[in-house]
Amino acid sequence: MPAHTFHISVKDALSLKKATKNKSLPTIVVFADDQGQILGNLGDAEYLSRAADLIKQSHFKGGMGDSVTDYAIHAKDFPVVTVVGIGKLDKLADNIAKAAQAVYTAIKNTPAAAILWGDTICQIHFTQFVTALIGAGYRFEHHKAKPKDADLLEEVIIISNKDAQDDYDNALTFAKATAAGMTTARDVANEAPNLLNPSELAQKAKQLAKDYEDTISVSVLGEKDMQKLGMGCFLAVSQGSDAEGKLAVIEYYGKSSKSGKKSKLERPFALVGKGLTFDSGGISLKPAAGMEEMKFDMGGAASILGTVRAVAEAGLEIDLVAVLACAENMPSARASRPGDVVTAMNGTTVEILNTDAEGRLVLCDALCYVQEHYDARVIIDTATLTGACVIALGSVRSGMYSNDEDTLFALEAASEYTGDLVWHMPLDETYNEQLNSKVADVQNIGGREAGSVTAACFLKRFIKEGQAWAHLDIAGTAWKSGSTASASGRPVALLTQYLRSQA
Ligand code: BES
Ligand code: MN
Ligand code: ZN
C-alpha cells in the first residue's frame, strides 16, 4: 500500500480515561499556543498539569510545529505526554495543515495516540486537520525494492467535548472521504508516465465504477468515437502519440438512481479534468530540464477522479458527471504542426500556433461534449494549464476563473473552509482579443502577456451563453515541484467541500 493508514475516531474525555487505564497507554497530544497556553480544557487535570509542567521546565515557546515530549520513563503507569505548538492562535486558520503535519511527526512512531482537541479549536479546523493528518502518512514507494520502514501508528483518538460528538462524527466521516479521494488523486498523479498512459488512466475510472458499483458507472470513448463526434482539437493532440487518447465519462448517481426508473442524471454538476499523462510539448518541444515533471500534467484528471471517489465515499446526495480528457502530447511524424487548423466538436476552427498549448485543445472538446450530452448545473474544469499561473500565484493558490457569481462565491467559501486555496482571476474581453486568429475562428495561444488568463479565455469561448462554468488553473498547486516532486491531491478537498455545500 502506498499510504500508511491508521484508524481514527472521535471520543470524549471519559473514554480517554478508560483507554489510559488499559495496558496500552497511548501518547497524549496537547496543543499550546505561542504564549505557552494549553488549548482546550477537557478537564483531565492529570495530563493538563503534566503538560503545563513540561512547558515550564523545557521553556517551550509553542512555535508552530515545535513539540516537546515527556516520556515519564520511570513512572510506570504514566502515558507519554507530547505538547505540540500551534503558534499564534489568531493565525491558526492559515496553519492548520502545518499543525497536523507536526502532530503526525510527533506520533508516527507510537502505536496509539490521543489528541486533546477541546473546544478552542473549532470544527472547521477539525475537518482540515483530520484530512491533513491522514495525508501526512502518505507515501509513494511501490517501485522501490526496499521501502522505508512503515510508521508504527495504528490508532488515533481525537478527544472532543461530549455535547458535540455527533457534529464531530459527521465531520470525521467527511474528512476521511476527502482524504481517501486525495490519496487516489496522489497515487494516480505520482505514477510514472510509461506506466500510466491515457488508456491506463481511463482504466482507473473503470476501477472506480467497480469499487462503487451501486452509484457509479463509466464509459470510455476512444479515438474512433471521438472522430465520429468531430473532436478535432482533442485528436490533434493525441495523434502524435502511439498511445491512444481516451475520454472517460463517469456518472455518479447520488440523487437519482443508477438502475431504477430515473436512470438519467438530473441537472448534474459536471467536472472536467485535463489528463495529459505526459506533455513533451509536441513539435513545440519543451526544454529538457524538468521535463519529467510533465508526468503530472494529468493532475486535473487525477483530482477529478479523486473528487468522485470522495463524493461516492461520503455518499453526497447529488448527481455528478465527470469527464477525464486523457491524452499524451508527443512529437512524431503524425504530430500536429504549428500552423495546423483543426475543428472542434462545436464547429469552431482553431489555428494551432504552439503545440505545447495542448491542454486547452483537449479541454475544449471535452467541454463541448459535456454541454452536448448533459444539462449541467455548473461545469468546473481543473487543469495544469499554464506555466504563467505558476509565475502569478506560485504553489499557494490555484487560479480561479468563472462566468458565474454564485459559483465564484461558493468556491471561495470552500477554499477558506478547506485551506485548499484559490484566487479569483479576470476574464475581460480585452484579454480574449489576443486569441483572434488571422486564418481561423481562434488561435490556441495569446501572447507573452497574461498567459493563464488567455488560456482561460480560450476555454470560455467554448462555453455556451447561460452555462455556469468555472476553471481552476492548478499548474502551481497540483504537485510540489523540485527534487522530491510529489502530487498534492489538490484541489480534491476544495471540490468535495464545494459539492457538499451545494448538496
Ligand atoms: N502543462 C503545461 C503547463 C505547465 C507548465 C504546468 C509548467 C505546470 C508547470 C501546458 O501544457 C503548457 O505547456 N503551457 C504552455 C502554454 C504556452 C505555450 C502558451 C506554457 O505554459 O508555457
Ligand atoms: Mn503543454
Ligand atoms: Zn500541458
How would you describe what is shown here?
- With 503 residues, this protein is an alpha/beta fold.
- The protein has two domains: 7-160, Leucine Aminopeptidase, subunit E, domain 1 (3-Layer(aba) Sandwich), CATH 3.40.220; 177-502, Zn peptidases (Aminopeptidase).
- 36% of the residues lie in helices and 19% in strands.
- The chain has 15 helices and 19 strands.
- The strands form four sheets. Strands 7-8-10-9-13-17-14-15 form an eight-stranded mixed beta sheet, sandwiched between helices.
- The chain is elongated.
- It starts with 6 loop residues before the first strand and ends with a helix.
- The model has no long low-confidence stretch (mean pLDDT 94).
- Bound molecules: ligand BES, manganese (II) ion and zinc ion (ZN).
- The site of manganese (II) ion (MN) has 4 residues, from loops.
- Residues 354-361 form the Cytosol aminopeptidase domain.
- Belongs to the peptidase M17 family.
